[in-house]
Design brief:
By secondary structure, the chain is mainly alpha-helical. Helices cover about 75% and strands about 0% of the residues. The longest helix is centred in the middle third of the chain and has 32 residues.
Length: about 375
């Protein structure tokens, strides 16, 4: 680990392997987190997920080799966090503001990435200390949840009525949820295959295809993250006014239109301006949680979410592996957009708008 790899100079194949293993770990932990959340409570599942992720992160400070580093960096625990939080928001926030609430929470993803990039500058090249400190820092959100969060009253009520029943995955494949489960899974699979494919390919594209330096790539990605932050919150607000489904379709069409332009643009100033626009339309990532959680009953909501996240992790390999060298970049310039265009058509068939579904429930 005292080689160039330990200094962050990983080969392309190793970077791809690390990203793929992270997504697989996210998918696996989503399955486990969904089971815990539906059967033992949202709060307990969220605390367990954060503690698990913190332990794995802190353990990176003592890894003896790169193989152990990859295994511990596999994202175990991380996948449960967003699936649990999305269900928690739907069960605790009023329907007219769920889109904004869910989008604001997930907007911490790009904001946290930007902060992490800045904080890492104080630790590197001592990356072992960096992982130790950040792993221990998980105790802060765990303490906040432990002492300030209340268990979802909706989940507690449902659990009291079905105390002897265990929620299992077949529940979301039973009629009348089967169609929504299958189509929702396909929708998320196509969208996030394109999303993770593009985000995996982006740094390599900027450095290899467009000749940017490492510092310039970091700057470009930070600006893109700012666009993502604005998009999550802006489209979350829009979703509460025109509906989740319509807003998701707008974001998918937008990112499908911008990505090919971004891929063929060679001027650095134009790329810098297009980056935030591309990030703006990736807001569908944050809208999926509130949209899909409203289509399912409280019991089984997290089993549905874990299936979708598992599908995301499984499909991401098909995009990440070819993203090596010029051929991979050329191939990825178009495939994610084709997926999103197909997805826009499928999204219209997936189900009725969430507002209509909520109206039916209230009746």
């Amino acid at each position: 680990m005292a080689s160039d790899r330990a200094q962050g100079k990983l080969f392309a194949d190793e970077r791809v392997s690390g990203q793929w293993l992270t997504l697989v770990g996210i998918g696996f932990s989503s399955l486990v987190g969904g089971y815990i959340s539906d059967n033992f409570g949202r709060k307990k599942a969220l605390i367990a997920a954060l503690i698990t992720f913190g332990i794995f992160t802190a353990a990176l400070s003592v890894v003896p080799n790169f193989a152990c580093f990859l295994m511990l960096r596999s994202g175990v625990g991380l996948g449960s966090v967003w699936s649990v939080v999305s269900a928690y928001i739907v069960e605790t926030w009023p329907v007219e503001s769920r889109g904004r609430a869910a989008a604001f929470v997930i907007s911490a993803f790009p904001a946290g990435g930007a902060v992490a990039a800045l904080v890492s500058g104080y630790f590197l090249p001592d990356w072992r200390l960096m992982f130790l400190v950040t792993g221990i820092a998980v105790l802060l959100p765990v303490s906040i949840i432990l002492f300030t969060f209340k268990e979802s009253a909706t989940w507690a009520e449902q659990k009291a009525q079905h105390a002897s029943n265990t929620v299992v995955v077949r529940d979301v494949f039973a009629w009348p949820l089967r169609r929504t489960t299958i189509l929702g899974t396909l929708m998320v699979a196509f969208a996030l295959t394109g999303y993770w494919g593009a985000m995996t390919w982006l740094p390599t594209y900027l450095a290899v295809e467009r000749g940017l330096s490492s510092s310039s790539v970091a700057y470009f990605v930070t600006i893109l993250n700012i666009g993502m932050f604005v998009g999550y919150n802006g489209f979350g607000f829009l979703a509460d006014h025109i509906g989740r489904r319509r807003t998701i379709i707008i974001t998918l069409l937008g990112v499908a239109a911008v990505m090919p332009i971004y891929a063929i643009t060679s001027n650095h100033n134009a790329l810098l301006r297009l980056g935030p626009l591309f990030g703006l339309f990736t807001a569908f990532f944050g809208l999926f949680g509130s949209y899909l959680s409203e289509l399912f009953p409280t019991r089984g909501t997290l089993h549905r979410r874990r299936l979708l996240l598992q599908c995301r992790a499984g499909n991401s390999r098909d995009v990440a592996v070819p993203a090596r060298g010029n051929l991979g970049c050329h191939w990825l310039q178009w495939r994610p957009d084709r997926m999103r265009l197909l997805l826009c058509l499928g999204c219209r068939r997936c189900t009725r708008s969430t507002q209509e579904r909520c109206a039916c429930r209230s009746d």
